[in-house]
Amino acid sequence: MSEEGPGSDDHDHAMFPSDDLFHVLSDPSRRTVLFHLRQHGIATLEELLDVLEAVRSEESEEVDRTQVRTSLLHSHLPLLEETGLLTYDLSEGVVRSPNLHDDIGEWLDLAVRQQLRYESALETHDRPDEEIEVLLVDDEPGLPETIGAYIERENDDIVVTTAASTLEAVSTLEETSFDCVVSDYQMPAISGLDFLKAVREKDTPLPFIVFTAKGSERVASEAIASGVTDYVQKEPTSEQFDVLVERIRKAATGD
């Protein structure tokens, strides 16, 4: 293992690439390890295993401690050491991380808060016996009303509110809560992806589906990079609305 601590010049946290940090914090187990170390600075491997096991047990009834240990030792700790966020010594059974502060600590706290908000949103959206409120945004005259009418006619548990522009949609979101947003991609004034970015800044976990005829790998990659929940291409048949409904249910309920 490395003898040089994570506070060295080779691991200057101020120069930590954002993409790498997003990758590290994307895994809940790594977030749990880092969050524990931020509070205590040092921990034994057994302590970290206990923490991870406790978190896993809240999510499922059966927890395989051997599997948790394997993931910690062969996946999470090596990656976190490689990125300079901690050091560990298997012979001592000790993990140290003195530099989880300032920018890194703020990013970690943000990631944990966003995870809690996302889990809370999933609990709220997991309501199979209640209506699913959908905001449908499209600037093509008459199209959102047509789509909304079809969806409501075929699905008793879905209520669709339409908006003819992103500006109208923003105003609607300020007044009403929804379980899912469905938006066209190319619209005047503010595009669907710019609208998505605005939604993410205000409500990170709100499911957002891009529904557009402009199908291309570039559009899909832009949508994914912007944090879209799903991406559905428009087709000239009513079956496309059934596909959209399926994606709405999946996004809104977390199933």
UniProtKB/TrEMBL annotation:
What's a GO biological-process term for it?
A: phosphorelay signal transduction system
Q: Does the keyword Flavoprotein apply?
A: no
Task: Tell me where in this chain the Response regulatory domain is found.
Answer: 133-249
Superkingdom of origin organism: Archaea
| Phosphoprotein in keyword set | yes
Stored Gene3D superfamilies: 3.40.50.2300, Winged helix-like DNA-binding domain superfamily/Winged helix DNA-binding domain
Residue numbers bearing the 4-aspartylphosphate modification: 184
| Protein keywords | Phosphoprotein
Q: Which Pfam family would be a valid example here?
A: Response_reg
Q: What is this protein called?
A: Pas domain s-box
Native source species:
Natronococcus amylolyticus DSM 10524
